[in-house]
Amino acid sequence: MSFTSSDEVATYIGGIFETAFADAELGPKLAETGIVLEFDFSDPETHLIIDTTAGAVHNGREGAPEPAATMSMTADVGNAYWQGKVNLPMAMAKKKIKVEGNVASLLKLAPLSKKLFPTYIERLTVDGRDDLLV
């Protein structure tokens, strides 16, 4: 099964960033990257702007800072990524994930994101969203 609404995408994928910002180890490391990143999801259409400098997640572009980079993908690919099931370079090569803007800054986030995979899976499980497990 897939996400049924943009609110679900924001709850789970946006929520993983909120969890990271609150983490004593990851929060400062995210802030150090200084990146504003947009996730442009399709199926369902969702725009999440992640502002690492402010520790904020914006559901939508209104009132959000301008992103330095945008990653476009289906919400299913995003969901699989946060479960550790997507190889980022391979997905980019196969055009499952399209990146625009400052790619180097995105690469700073990759090692940090891996630490969040178990947290993401746990949240899906606790919420009874086994249908989203890959």
Can you describe what's shown?
The chain is 45% helix and 20% strand. Helix 2 runs antiparallel to helix 5. A hairpin with a 3-residue loop joins strand 1 and strand 2. A five-stranded mixed beta sheet has the order 3-2-1-4-5. It contains six helices and five strands; from the N terminus they run H-H-E-E-E-E-H-H-E-H-H. It is α+β, with helices and mostly antiparallel strands and 134 residues long. The termini are close together. The model has no long low-confidence stretch (mean pLDDT 93).
The coarse overall form would be globular
Order of helices and strands: HHEEEEHHEHH
Order of strands across the main sheet: 3-2-1-4-5
Distance between the termini: 10 Å
Strand tally: 5
